Amino acid sequence: MKNISFILLATTILFFGSCEDKMVKLYPTMDGKKEFVISNVGSFSNEVIISRADIEASLKDLDIPAEGEVLSVSVETVQLKVAPKADNACTAVMVSGTIQEIGVATKKEFVKNFQLPVPTEPMTIKLGGLVEAGVAEFTSQLDRIIRTKTLPADFTGLKCVVSGTSFPVDKKLSFDMELIVKITIEYQQKVKI
């Protein structure tokens, strides 16, 4: 009986005593969504505000531990969810969009002249025609915020403007639209294994 107890004790010490720290990479995601209504003839321009509170809530939801080291932040996709209304008469929309920090004059295009078919049923469409410089600027801002887990004191939010022209040009645009930005964060932290 003593031999079995000794073997169990030795095995336990070896097994649990050999725990070591391993670096593990994790990949949480963030989805930012903002809705707006389009009802116009020919063209439209809608402003979407991503407020400081929106970003703070998203940071809290990410729940990256204090010891987690952020390695990268990337915009995976920019999508528009389009839900046409009964009085919609257009078949497509040429979409462009800009983003800027509220209170800062510089705007960056993130999508330019993307032809978006207007579906007959609600549909989510991944945007092509993304402008690399605008997406890079947005990603850079998010990267700084996520790495430091804080927002600058004077930061109030981001403003996105989504605009477009209908096809045929003189037809009524009438649909609900939702701007969706999917972001992936890569971070690493030590865990005991």
Low-confidence stretches: 1-15
Radius of gyration: 24 Å
Broad structural category: alpha+beta
What's the SSE pattern?
HEEEHEEEEHEE
Summarize model confidence as the mean pLDDT. 84
What is the helix content?
Answer: 10-25%
- According to DSSP, the number of beta strands is 9
Shape: elongated
**How far is the first residue's CA from the last residue's CA?**
31 Å
Roughly what fraction of the amino acids lie in strands?
Answer: over 45%
| Major pleated sheet | 5 strands, antiparallel
| Number of helices, where a helix is a run of at least 4 consecutive DSSP H or I residues | 3
Question: How would you characterize the overall build of this protein?
Answer:
The radius of gyration is 24 Å and the shape is elongated. It is of the alpha+beta class. The chain has helices at residues 2-17, 52-62, 132-148, and strands at 21-26, 29-41, 43-51, 69-84, 92-101, 108-117, 123-126, 157-167, 172-192. The model is unreliable at 1-15 (pLDDT under 50). Strands 1, 2, 4, 7 and 9 form a 5-stranded antiparallel sheet that branches. The protein has a 4-stranded antiparallel sheet with strand order 3-8-5-6. The two termini are 31 Å apart. Helices cover 23% and strands 52% of the residues.
